[in-house]
Amino acid sequence: MDALKAQDPARIGAHTLLARLGAGGMGQVYLGRSPGGRLVAIKVIRDEITDHPEALARFRREVETVRAVRSAYTANLIDASLDAAPYWLATEYVSGPTLSEAVRERGPLPAESAGRLFAALAEALASVHRYGVTHRDFKPQNVILSPQGPVLIDFGIARGAADTALTQTGFAPGTPGYTAPEVMISNQVGAAADVFALGATLAYAATGRPPFGSGPTHAVSYRVVHEDIDIDGVEPELAGLILECVAKDPAQRLGLDAVIARCAVSSALAEDSFYGRLAADATAVPQDPRSAMAAGLIPPGHGAPTPPAYPPTAEPGYVPTVAPAYVPTLAPSATAVPERRRSRRTPLLVALAVVMVAGSAALMALKPWDGDRTEARDTGKSSASPTSSAAPQRAPEYILNDRVSRDRWTLSPNPDEAAYGMGKCQQIGAVSPRDELQYSAKDADDPDSPTVAKRAEISFRFKNAGNNGKRPEPYYVSLGVKPPHEIDADTGKPYDVMMESKNVGYTSKPVDIYKHWKDGGYVKLTYPDDFQSHFPKDKVYPAIPVANDPGDWTAVLYHVKSSPTDYESIGCTGFRAGSS
After folding, report:
1. What is the pLDDT of residues 455-464, one digit of tens each?
2. Where do the domains of the chain lie, and which CATH numbers do they carry?
3. Which residues are designated catalytic?
């Protein structure tokens, strides 16, 4: 537990901050106090990734999972804010060290204590699986040793047990050394993958060593797939149980009920003297701002020492998650999958692959968060701003594929970015749009997939549309989607000798980007449904399936003016076409 820093807020939502609990890739975790005096752990998304749609998608999934899974082995959701930055969730505070910290400080667990912990963790995973959820990142760092027993945390990449298509080949979720072989080889996750992680976690608890050694990620992953787990020195019966959990073939692994039965515990883990000492190692926790100040955790002058009024006024986008609109429809069952509720809330659409295009030539293309499809009722009145560019009240029905386009999007070479479908777009001759442009591309049928298998959904808007309360002057945009290679019109596939595509591509009918000006919603188009390729002399070709040309597809936004040939590039994104 660390002191708050000058840049930390004094409160988040209704909760007064007392200290820092830790940090991770997603953001900062704070100790907070609710207005009624309850201690909470608050995870806040880092500012630099608030415009990353997949990070926000992961965060929202974590909120929904924690809300849906009600178990004695998980920290219950208290509150969350998902409508505007800062994005955060608050869960009940669980006192105790992580299993990783406990082993690092106290050394490996004795066989008897490890057996009791094995049974408790198996029961914890089984309770989560009953809600149709797989954890996907089960490891010592995500287990808190509370006085009552272990608690599972960090459901940021948890998914429904029936959702097996996760990432493109080579970019598996989870943590090397604890991620099952089938996840790394074929990106398939099920309950058996959590069992593998359970076995690896217990190997660490019993030996104090990484279960498949340390070193570069690829080296650890290779050992997981091809070599044996490190259980040297582990009591034989416990070692045998671990080996049955980490079998390379998921079909050969024990079920969680069998693990619990094989552990044959006769007393509660909380009664185990060694475990009791581990759980007692928790840092002393302040109960209120005054005690936090006395402990040096709140710097002098850092916020008021008394709890704020509820609801707070410092966070305009904050809405408590107790509101009915945030209640998921998940019903507990062995096969149920938590519904990824796509709330279409306009403020959350900031999470849609935000790309600022103030004349930049190389732009990040991020996958989107779901947006608002609701049509804004238009009064028909137009109130042009004095600085708006001259745009026609009526746009042409199409734009002609009559020029060379060297705009090109490519998937990021960084594995972490590529796993989220991120990439860069090189534009030549692009002009700056009227306002800050936001756009994104994703698989229309599986929004969480980093690749597009059949249909792509491309969304775009001006960030500040309608902020002054007046209907902006129309600004027509046509979207051009181009495959990586030149296409033979007769076959709908690339030529035998493949050539880079250098044309405008398949384009959409021009649409006013302010279609949803009142609520700032996105314009959404689906490829190939909404696209054709128009050439001179009235030649029109239908859009080809993305499967005809796997690879990096480019989506260019064109500002359309007075005729089918009067348009200019203003932005670019793209997607990787291929099976998930």
Report:
1. 999 999 988 7
2. 11-93+285-326 (3.30.200.20), 99-279 (1.10.510.10), 347-577 (no CATH)
3. 137
